[in-house]
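Lab meeting, action items carried over

1. Structure of the two-component assembly. Owner: GW. Status: complete.
Input record:
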Amino acid sequence: MNFWHAWSLTRRATTLFSVLVFVIMSSLGMYLYTSARQALEQRADYTLIGRVEHFRTLFRDLYNIQQMEAHPTLFESMLGNEQDVRIFRRLGDTPFINVNPGAMSPPAMKPVELGVPLTLEALREGKRDDGVRVRWVAALAEVGDHKDKVEIIAAYVMTQESGVLSTYLLRVIAAVALTVLLTSVLSYLILRRGLLPVATMSRQAGQISPKNLSLRLSATDMPPDLHKLALACNDMLDRLEAGFRQLSQFSSDLAHELRTPVNILMGQTQVALAQARELEEYESLLESNLEEYARLARIIENILFLAHIDHAGFVVEKEPLSMAAEMGKLIDYFDILAQERDMHFAVDVGGIDGMVYANPLMLQRALSNLFINAIRHGQAGTVIQVKAIASTEGVSISIVNQCAAIEPLQLDKMFDRFYRGDSARSSHTESNGLGLSIVKAIVDLHGGHVSASYNKAEQAIALDLFFPG
Amino acid sequence: MTILVIEDDQKTGDYLKKGLRESGYAVDLARNGIDGLHLAMEQSYELVILDVMMPGLDGWTVMQSLRSKQDMPVIFLTARDHVDDRIRGLQLGADDYLVKPFSFTELVLRIRTLLRRGVRRDADIYQVADLQLDTVRHKITRQNLPIALTSKEFMLLHLLIKHQGEALSRTIIASQVWDMNFDSDTNVVDVAVKRLRAKLDAPFEKKLIHTVRGVGYMFAENP
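Predicted assembly:
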């Protein structure tokens, strides 16, 4: 059915309609033709029976066979048309009247006995050489008072009827053909017009490209079923556009992010090379360059990490970890940093038994990023509260610390890549705006969720993570 | 101590050769996999540093051929950091695996570790200049004066003293002392070393902990 796949919807529907109409119309035609034929045959049968009964009555009232034999033409011309057969004979004798224009031989049949009325069952079916149907009947009749028995063999040749029927058949065929033709043409025209919105849609869709991603399919004047399709397509385009925007934004942020260290590297090296310097100056230049390279490497590493995580099919290897042990390790490490800002940690890990089901390196990385943020952006001299609550569903970790007011809009954007809460404050060397997006990516990868909220009364920001068990 | 470096990138190869020579190793450099494999088969090397992505004969193939004949330690260098690649490299018999960009200091440290693997045993008591560190009793004295250190400070000092004369990178220190196994973009190590210095070096004339610029820290009597 290869050609079927190549056909347009219009062509398929037209073909199906035509086939349907052909089947219905020909069935109807056949039914009408068959009933007409049956009606005509029945009429012919009754005519034949009527005739033979008429002969039987006629014979009984006649004097004798001799008289019939004497006037054969009288009987020959009696009733019926030219094609019909009338054969009268004494039993076992040659016929004395033999009208048989087609010279047909009667089929084998037993004559209907005297006194038995003729019925349709007594009739026999035959066919003339040219295919016209013939109805045969044989009956015995009494002639006058002599009780002579005469066998009547009669046949009705359906010449007229077959003429009528063949004309009728031709008309039926013509009607079917015409109807099918009309259906094909009309349904093709109607469908083409009906499917015009589809053509419009594909034309509109054809205009959408990365350069004009904001174009949408016009759903308003679409029929309801296509309306849904158009809306679904538009939704899809919305999602694609958002993703595309995000990607473009990400690329430009990335370029910007990389440009700064490269610029520093180029600039300070050029300045250093402009004239001869002391050895120490070269050394400190190289040291400074090394710091920038390390920063570049870290940005690349972070981006690669995000790219890996984004890659569909990335499977994270999880294992049960003791919340207390993991937290202890991290606090040990970051406590040194916190003390520099006169901050300290208040940890509540909900008992020793709290287990979190996670990848150890990723958990460490996510929590580290949060602690670094808390230490960097928190108010000096305050407490960083760390709370972990284990339940049957999983582990919620909450990190609360005092910091400058954050607008709700900023909270929403916090987990975006390259977002910086306050570009003036976060010094360039410290962060690259990827920390929280990595936290989110890690938590998402574990099937959990992150949220940020700001409590105005306490002037504290809370970052909540949830790792499912 | 001859090391074979197989690296197709001109600059990388050059600086590896230069850096390793200055670190006290004899270095042969092969610019492609075919030459590298040939050299490795013909001569005997203590260690091979092998780049993975090379035109012609790649690192995996070189590794396979190499392992069928020789049993020297091999360190893979690669820009690919998929876990799968790492597993593949180690399965092929590599002894270590460094992802580009890597720190040259770290490479040297790993080379040292590989070359002396299984030989060295930790001492119980270290004596450097006027400092004595007793790992069993967790006691540190300088000029016979006891110095009180927190447990992390003790671990840090122990690590530095165990590798005296070697520059240790911040990454390695963070990993060994605090079990932080990724570059966390913080100066925790610097702060910790600063505190250790305040207790250990500040009161005394002779300084034992030295900053190695652009690398990290080193414990040495005479830098």
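2. GW to write a short summary for the group page. Key points so far: Residues 135 and 158 of chain B are 8 Å apart (CA to CA). The first helix of chain B runs from residue 10 to 22.
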